[in-house]
Amino acid sequence: MNTYVSKEQYEMLQKTGMRCKMNVPNLIHLTINLILKNENSNPDERVLPPKVQELITSFLILEGSTLSEFERDTQIVVYFKDDMLKAAIVWMIIKYEIPGWNEFLRRIVLFLLKSPNLIDLREAAEFENESNIFSTKEEDEYLNLARKDFYFALYK
Fold first, then answer.
1. 123 is in which domain, residue-wise?
2. Measured distance CA(101)–CA(19) in Å, rounded
């Protein structure tokens, strides 16, 4: 997928990416992954807060093209190698009646541009990756020792 943005818009995306310690394509990947996980999960297990999800949905249900929101200064290219991810994106495109792949990308970029301070996407991804946020100190120590044993056995 690719799209064009103005230099100012690209700088805004870079600043948002720097806050999350990642580049623009990785920021877009993370955003799409969080949106897909949120769409496919139960309401009790959602990664993003409801207000953020509503805002994302408001960008996804826009009618027509968002091409007029962007200038052709800087190209953003995002590659997706995972077939499951591609299928999930196609499902989102069909569900929200988005005209195509590049329009889907423009809507994600538009969301990131209109709400750069809304949520720290990296924190949401880390929260989603935590297996048990209520683990005890003993469980944490056990997991750390198990990891050390694994690495020691692997590299010895």
1. 2-131
2. 27
Look at 49-53, 90-94, 127-131 and tell me which has the smallest mean pLDDT: 127-131
Residue 10 domain-assigned? yes
Amino acid of residue 46: R
The Cα–Cα gap between 99 and 110 comes to: 15
Cα 142 from Cα 54, distance rounded (Å): 40
Amino acid occupying residue 61: I
Question: Is there a domain that residue 144 lies in?
Answer: no
Residue with tokens 């935590």: 130
User: CA-CA distance, 128 to 48, in Å (whole number)?
Assistant: 9
- If one counts the domains in the chain, the total is 1
Helix orientation angle between 101-114 and 24-39, rounded to the nearest 10 degrees: 100
Alpha-carbon distance of 148 to 156, in angstroms, equals: 12
**Within a domain: residue 37?**
yes
* Structure tokens belonging to residue 144: 């750390």
Beta strands in the chain (DSSP E): 2-5, 74-77
pLDDT in tens, 63-110: 888 988 899 999 999 998 989 999 999 999 999 999 999 999 999 999
115 occurs within a structural domain:
yes
